[in-house]
Amino acid sequence: GGKDANFGNVGVRKETERCLSQTEVEKEAWKLLRGAVVNYCGFPVGTVAANDPGDTQTLNYDQVFIRDFVPSAYAFMLDGEGEIVRNFLLHTLQLQSWEKTVDCHSPGPGLMPASFKVKSAPLEGNDGSFEEFLDPDFGGSAIGRVSPVDSGLWWIILLRAYGKLTGDYTLQERIDVQTGIKLILKLCLADGFDMFPTLLVTDGSCMVDRRMGIHGHPLEIQALFYSALRCAREMLIVNDGTKSLVTAVNNRLSALSFHIREYYWVDIKKINEIYRYNTEEYSADATNKFNIYPEQIPTWLVDWIPDKGGYFIGNLQPAHMDFRFFTLGNLWAVISSLGNQEQNEGVMTLIEEKWDDLVANMPLKIC
């Protein structure tokens, strides 16, 4: 309060008022968050995705979603409550790749459910007692029936955060947990037809779980993939059985970061480069590697992008760039150092320059 020293206690009083009002808001937030906790066999295992008293039809929002619980988990751990997060990690691990199928087709080993619900069934013998069980959803009841690619990635990231924030590293060293990490990695690093280091996913298999043309190699999944690979590398116990997996993780990390930094980054300089692209180029030394057509650059982009700063585009596929700004993918690229120093600062500069479009009077827009 040095500045306000001449004005009596005005500065101090304002600060006190701010703290009090903040505490009220915080109190309300904690009350709502604690009211959303889901218990299983008497222990907390997560929070429901949404809890609207005025909602007559809850749809599947009364379930514990892996992605939705992550921010709640961080709040709990920062408040010194690790138990709910530990329970959540272990119970979702037990649900990993259940024999649940969509139209007789089973998920690959390692797939984590999008969400789960606590249900109860009557015990045998009619004495009226029930037992609780967890019912996972692997996308069978999701919009578009898409399986979640991000659940396993979030699970690894949260497991790493749990160890770092609580100091309890015994959880990640358990054999079942190590196996869970390996299964997720093997699912993500499996060889297929795809030639890019990015992770190939079907439309809507991420946070935006409905059709928005988010398929191929969307930024959000790549940023989470990069983050999960880094976390897994820190947690995997290296022995003869995991040596080749660790090598695969390291190779993928460097290829992935190069690919995203090189081909997903857009600023005014890059846009001018794309305008000069030739198309239908053969040979290894082609400049326009993905055969992007310059006329694809939307008119809004040229008017919108500031002279300073830039961002990672939403998606890159052969002959197609998705120039939409996806917030989670960009911010997670900054958090995980997927972007280089200059790009990370560029994203923050862009958000500042375009504050009215991206933030305005509400929390940051998803897209």
Automatic annotation (TrEMBL):
Invertase that cleaves sucrose into glucose and fructose. It comes from the Eukaryota. The lineage of its organism: Eukaryota, Viridiplantae, Streptophyta, Embryophyta, Tracheophyta. This is Alkaline/neutral invertase. It is an enzyme of class 3 (hydrolase). It catalyses: Hydrolysis of terminal non-reducing beta-D-fructofuranoside residues in beta-D-fructofuranosides. Belongs to the glycosyl hydrolase 100 family. It comes from Arabidopsis thaliana (Mouse-ear cress). Pfam families: Glyco_hydro_100. Keywords: Carbohydrate metabolism, Glycosidase, Hydrolase. GO terms for molecular function: beta-fructofuranosidase activity; endo-alpha-N-acetylgalactosaminidase activity. Its EC number is 3.2.1.26. GO terms for biological process: carbohydrate metabolic process.
